[in-house]
Amino acid sequence: MAHASDRYYVPHGSPWPIVGSVALLLLMFGIASTLNGAAIGKISMLAGAAVLLFMLFGWFGIVIKESVDGFYNQQVDRSFRMGMAWFIASEVMFFAAFFGALFYARQLSLPWLGGEGNNFFTNFLLWSGFENEWPSNGPAEIGGDFKAMGPWGLPAMNTAILLTSGVTITIAHHALRAGNRGMLTLFLGLTWVLGFLFVGLQGYEYAHAYHDIADGGLSLRLDSGIYGSTFFMLTGFHGLHVTLGATMLIVIWFRVLKGHFTPDSHFAFEGVAWYWHFVDVVWLGLFIFVYWL
Amino acid sequence: MSHTAEAHHDDHHDAPTGIKRWLFATNHKDIGTMYLVFSLVLFFIGGAMAMVIRAELFQPGLQFVDPGFFNQMTTMHALMMIFGAVMPAFVGLANWMVPLMVGAPDMALPRMNNWSFWILPVAFSLLLSTLFMPGGSPAGGWTMYPPLVMQTGDAFPFLIFSVHLMGMSSIMGAINIVVTIMNMRAPGMSLLKMPLFVWTWLITAYLLILAMPVLAGAVTMLLTDEYFGTSFFNAGGGGDPLMFQHVFWFFGHPEVYIMILPAFGIVSQIIPTFARKPLFGYDSMVYATASIAFLSFIVWAHHMFTVGMPLAGQLFFMFSTMLIAVPTGVKVFNWMTTMWKGSMTFETPMLFAFGFLFLFTIGGFSGLMLGITPADFQYHDTYFVVAHFHYVLVPGAVFAIMAGVYFWLPKWTGHMYNEKLGKLHFWLSAIFVNVTFFPQHFVGLAGMPRRIPDYATQFADFNMISSIGAFVFGASQLLFVYIVWSCVRGGEKATQQVWEGAEGLEWTVPSPAPHHTFEVAPEVK
User: Fold this and answer.
1) Which B residues 137-156 touch A at CB under 8 Å?
2) pTM for the full model?
């Protein structure tokens, strides 16, 4: 019989997945019912969110405990790494759908509405006088007058913040591998502070966008045609991912304070760092294609 | 430290019992069984919906259901069969067989494995509950094209969220399979020694990971267009309803291969076993599978030739579609060559694999016809399309699943199934699947549109034949349930190898396979 630590660790039964399923049932039923205007929806939604949080604490708690107790060998570690990498790949494809929508609108649907190619009559009969331009809220000018979000100023600052946080987490990683706890704690802490700073500034930018032009804002809202749709859906989903990433950074920061990671075994740190670089790269795409070009 | 780990291991070693065994399951065999049973239940729910459709189409005119409910049935039948029956069945087979085939003690991420299964009942409860809602179930087709789908009643957000959940389940399942295959193989099991079922599932899992999130994005845009005022699919706001079709089919075409590549894998296991010859052209099978997977991402617009795309786009998508015939042809010829001069016997799994080979190829050929842009203008949205994809999905994917079940059932249960009844099941299925779907080619070519509860009287005879075929086909599947049930309950003891020509690690463990296998990795020469 092989030694326990040489064998692959297979847990024998776990209540957490089914708790997670109950959470998802309550949550999804709740959101759907709320959208349908049913009063029960909100209660179900809150209950679902609560059970989901309970599940996350319980599930990650047991995994962390097993990890600290030394049940996981190199092979288990590799499984976690691969799992995380492919999870991030699926996230990339989720964003790709929204980037695809942005490119499609800019390269195809708006030019066609403006009469390009064999679409002269589309333009002439349906949207006479509409010319293709970007930013645009379409020939029906859905959402009314708005101003576009420029790249320089806040978004450029946010870019600098996220790129810096990419550097700080790398420094923290090097410190972890060198066994330098002080540097690790400092730079990992700096990373999540920068992350939440980004989220805060993004919130400020949203507030500015939502204010009327008359009040010094942009009148730019989620319903400002295709520009507002792509702008808020892309930056919004990115913002959610940054929030999630920064939360994960805090979690591993507390785990660092508890001394959970060793120079050769720290999957959670690396997984979060990969995720953080992923939101970083998505942001660069956003900065270029949503704000700048 | 390792001592406590040892203790922790050993006191849990026996199989857990009762409801906890299933709710808290982390064992790949238990989870595989749950997937398979779930998929069988959904197969019958989706099948019942198909029976409603065929009953209504038995004669021209409106007989049993109102057109709105008919549309709900076509939409829900598709969603049930694709996401509820075929995909979970393949995941169930992968759960059972992939660890056995690569010599792994379990799936790589056993808790997540449990979650990916237990999300499915949630997703389908939400979706099936829409049958009882004001406005009924979604009725705009499983493809959920806007603006039609926006007219769905209270069911709309339930449809969207159930699709999200199915996607989550598939992605987690796929990640688990990739990691298991890449990280858990026994020493010596190099990539090009893996059984083809493992290979096809590996490639399918990549397709799932890359395609499902795109569907999630597409339905999220539907949701925000409906409730939050976005303009993705609204031309007035600068969007385009057609854009949905592009995003959807960017997922949808890989999805087609998600439902057929594992079937290729199963058939590639079965044919060599019963021809008692190694698979002809193993390497080319692997490369062909990978080529099909790659091509599946650049052919999506052949589902939408009639929407008015630029000519260059139509040509590109026509030629890339034609290209898929090459690797698929490689596969079909390899299977035929494997059988050439083999010493063949025709037990039930082989019969189903054989049926697959013939009938899937018919579906492949009608697919080629549909891939020709100008010809597609004639066929689009007719029963010819319905005939085509049912040929690839029913005697294609479903026959392969059944072949796999008969093939591996003795390994799972430790008993042989009733061979006579199995053969009867095959012949009833094979004959009546053709009675059902072959006439649909004719009515389609003659212009009968799909998704319509009534039709012109000249289509009456073929529709009646098709309905009779469907009723008998549906009823014969009850025989399948009986065969599986009685095989679980008892029967002739199965040997370890089960089939005379069977080769591979999965046939070196006892039948039934014990709760835990390969806790010490086997050595593969």
Assistant:
1) 154, 156
2) 0.95
Min Cα distance B509 → chain A (Å) is 18
Task: Using CB atoms, pick whichever of A83, A110, A126 lies closest to residue B109.
Answer: A83
For this structure, is B14 an active site residue? no
- Radius of gyration of chain B, Cα coordinates, nearest whole angstrom: 23
pLDDT tens for each residue of A15-73: 999 999 999 999 999 999 999 999 999 999 999 999 999 999 999 999 999 999 989 99
Alpha-carbon gap, residue A46 to A24, rounded angstroms: 11
Nearest C-alpha neighbor of B442 from the set B462, B415, B456: B462
- Residue type for B296, please? S
d(CA B470, CA B73): 15
Contacts of A117 in chain B (CB under 8 A): 310
Same domain, A1 and A98: no
Which of B160, B175, B519 minimises the CB distance to A7? B519
Give the residue numbers spanning the domain of A65. 1-71
Is B388 a residue of the active site?
Answer: no
Contacts of A192 (CB under 8 A, 6+ apart): A246, A249, A250, A253
> What is the ipTM for the molecules in this complex?
0.95
DSSP letters for B77-144: HHHIIIIIIIHHHHHHHHHHHHHHHHT-SS-SSHHHHHHHHHHHHHHHHHHHHGGGSTT-S--STTTT
pLDDT single digits (tens) A204-228: 999 999 999 999 999 999 999 999 9
Cβ distance A15 to B23 less than 8 Å, yes or no, reads yes
Question: How many domains, in total, are found in chain A?
Answer: 2
User: B39: which residues sit within 8 A by CB, 6+ positions away?
Assistant: B84, B85, B86, B87, B88, B89, B92
| Gap from A233 CA to chain B (nearest CA, Å) | 9
User: What does the angle CA A186 – CA A190 – CA A194 come to, to the nearest 5 degrees?
Assistant: 180
Per CB-CB distance under 8 Å, the chain B contacts of A13 are: 12, 16, 20-21, 24-26
For residue B493, list its beta bridge partners: B415
Q: Check whether residue A81 and residue A26 sit in a common domain.
A: no
Chain A within 8 Å of B23 (Cβ-Cβ)?
yes
Domain match, A98 and A121 both: yes
The answer to whether B230 and A222 are in contact (CB under 8 A) is: yes
All structural domains of chain B, each given as residue ranges with its CATH number in brackets, are 27-507 (1.20.210.10)
Task: Locate the chain B residue with the closest alpha carbon to A60.
Answer: B111
The residue annotated as part of the active site, out of B164, B302, B390, B425, is B302
Residue A110 main-chain phi, psi, to 5 deg: -65, -45
Co-location of A77 and A63 in the same domain: no
Taking the C-alpha atoms of residue B64 and residue B67, their distance in angstroms, rounded to an integer, is 10
- Whole-number mean pLDDT of chain A? 94
In the listed set A71, A92, A123, which residue is the last one of a domain according to the structure?
A71
Hey, are the CB atoms on B108 and A79 less than 8 Å from each other? yes
Residue among A10, A20, A94 whose CB faces B216 most closely: A94
Residues 109-148 of A with CB under 8 A from B: 109-110, 112-113, 117, 126, 136-140, 142-143
| DSSP states of B396-437 | IIIHHHHHHHHHHHHHHHSB---HHHHHHHHHHHHHHHHHHH
The domain that holds A237 is classified in CATH as 1.20.120.80
Angle A121-A123-A124 from CA coordinates, rounded to 5°: 60
Residue B65: partners with Cβ closer than 8 Å, 6 or more residues away: B52, B56, B73, B453
B170 catalytic per annotation? yes
Instruction: Specify whether B461 is catalytic.
Output: no
Choose the mutation target among B31, B109, B115 for the interface with A, i.e. most A CBs under 10 Å: B115
DSSP-assigned letter for residue B219 = H
* Residue for token pair 């600068």: B238
Which of A71, A91, A110 terminates a domain? The answer is A71
Q: What is the pLDDT of residues B161-173, one digit of tens each?
A: 999 999 999 999 9
